[in-house]
Specification:
With about 450 residues, the protein is an alpha/beta fold. The chain contains twelve helices and 24 strands. The strands form seven sheets. A four-stranded mixed β-sheet has the order 2-15-17-16. It has a four-stranded mixed β-sheet with strand order 4-5-3-14, covered by helices on one side. α1 runs parallel beside α2 and α3 runs parallel beside α5. Bound molecules: shikimate-3-phosphate. The site of shikimate-3-phosphate has 10 residues, from α5. It catalyses: 3-phosphoshikimate + phosphoenolpyruvate = 5-O-(1-carboxyvinyl)-3-phosphoshikimate + phosphate.
Length: about 450
């Protein structure tokens, strides 16, 4: 499996952050671009693909199931797909590394093909719940042999033809929604997903872009019903992946908490189902401006300029959680340096991400001098009012890239260096992160 050797690193104040930054391609969109291209008939190209470990796990799995995927010297990826229904049985177990998105979406794909695949992953992924995906996929007729607690290693025995289902999501999860929809691609009839709380809609947008017959109906209460006509034929596309708003949140929070900073992050995806962090930071008083607003690959995109700001604590409405679900770790860093109290709730899902993010952020921030109360479903943080925190602690990143990066950013406004016990997980989503921080230091 893919557990690597721990690489500890200390982070300290880099000086004011200035200049232009580019963040890598969106992770969610990159996974989907590879999967859907691999299911189209013919040649697709992808530019701006995130070349992080998670996405490379998806590429390797799609290759193992028959797609031809190559990276050109110019950084453009070319995919020759096998067609919906054309996936081949992989010879060996699919190693998903740290990637929950790869695992859950691919479980959906395999489920409606007459093939069997075993999924394995690192220690973090092997603890994460997969029952939320195998439950609906069992209803289409697929079979699962999982480890105790419904975790990896897990074998999916797919079925063809599968039975179309109508599934109401019991948790707000784009991964579960996407797994059911991807299974629906090779299922005769109409697969329906009912989504009471909206989550990221990249699958819906991109499937339509590939020519699938997919509709979304929103009722008066905001409940979304997504219908996909199965036995779809996907047409190859040329996809441009926008920059990842989840990655952009790290330099943006760094600029907000570091005196004298002003940075512009170029080409940031601003799909409304993903941009909650920016709305909440603005509600706290963040000075953010958006320019060059446009559309890239069917997604809204802009350049974001962030300046050092006096932030004030807020209460984050629980319904905002899905639109910033991956950004809470770095949001908690911003809150710990704001004036007054920030209250978050409805965040039970954070306990089953790459790590228990509520516990690790509460422990790590407290160890570095912040005032944090951990509740079952959120954190209450009394901020420092802009003053530097003590810092000086070593935090456990627990194979979680976003925990590691959040504390590297917190160090911007700590008196003493903050040590992360292992920064290697950062490569799963933001391989250029350390280089970006070094460039800020060099520009001091
Ligand atoms: C993702 C969905 C979210 C998010 C993850 C990526 C996706 O997970 O946390 O990083 O690409 O669909 P959940 O669906 O579990 O909320």
């Amino acid at each position: 499996m893919t557990d690597s050797i721990a690489r500890p690193k200390s982070f300290s104040y880099t000086g004011p952050l200035r200049g232009d930054v580019r963040v890598p391609g969106d992770k969610s969109i990159s996974h989907r671009a590879l999967m859907f291209s691999a299911l189209a008939v013919g040649k697709s190209t992808i530019t701006g693909l995130l070349e992080g470990e998670d996405v490379l796990s998806t590429a390797a799995a799609m290759r193992a199931m028959g797609a031809d995927i190559a990276r050109g010297a110019d950084g453009v990826w070319t995919v020759h797909g096998v067609g919906v229904g054309g996936l081949m049985q992989p010879d060996t177990a699919l190693d998903m590394g740290n990637s929950g998105t790869s695992t859950r979406l691919l479980m959906g794909l395999v489920a409606s093909h007459a093939i069997q695949a075993t999924f394995i992953g690192d220690a973090s992924l092997s603890k994460r719940p997969m029952g939320r995906v195998s439950d609906p996929l069992s209803q289409i007729g697929a079979e699962f042999i999982s480890s105790p607690g419904g975790t990896l290693p897990l074998t999916v025995r797919g079925i063809c033809p599968a039975v179309p289902i109508s599934y109401r999501l019991p948790v707000a999860s784009a991964q579960v929604k996407s797994a059911v929809l991807l299974a629906g691609l090779n299922t005769p009839g109409i697969t329906e997903v009912i989504e009471p709380i909206p989550t990221r809609d990249h699958s819906e947008r991109m499937l339509r872009g590939f020519g699938a017959d997919l509709t979304v109906e929103v009722d008066a209460d905001g409940v979304r019903t997504i219908r996909l006509v199965g036995e779809a034929e996907l047409n190859p596309q040329n996809i441009d992946v926008p920059g990842d708003p989840s990655s952009a949140a790290f330099p943006i929070v760094a600029a907000l908490i570091t005196q004298g900073s002003e940075i512009t992050v170029r080409n940031v995806g601003l799909n409304p189902t993903r941009s909650g962090i920016y709305k909440m930071l603005e509600a706290m008083g963040a000075d953010l401006t958006y320019s060059n607003e446009r559309e890239v690959g069917g997604e809204p995109v802009a350049d974001i300029t962030a300046r050092h700001s006096a932030l004030t604590g807020i209460e984050v409405p629980p319904e905002a959680a899905p639109s910033m679900i991956d950004e809470f770790p770095v949001f908690f860093v911003a809150a710990s340096m704001a004036q007054g109290r920030t209250v978050t709730s409805g965040l039970d899902e954070l306990r089953v991400k790459e790590s228990d993010r509520l516990a690790l952020m509460a422990t790590g921030l407290t160890a570095n001098g912040a005032t944090v109360t951990e509740r079952e479903d959120g954190l209450v943080i009394d901020g420092s009012g802009g003053a530097a925190l003590a810092g000086g602690a070593t935090i456990a990143s627990a194979l979680d890239h976003r925990i590691a990066m959040s504390f590297a950013i917190a160090a911007q406004n700590c008196r003493d260096a903050v040590t992360v016990d292992d920064v290697s997980p950062i490569a799963t989503s933001f391989p250029t992160f350390e280089g970006m921080l070094e460039a800020f230091s060099a520009g001091r």
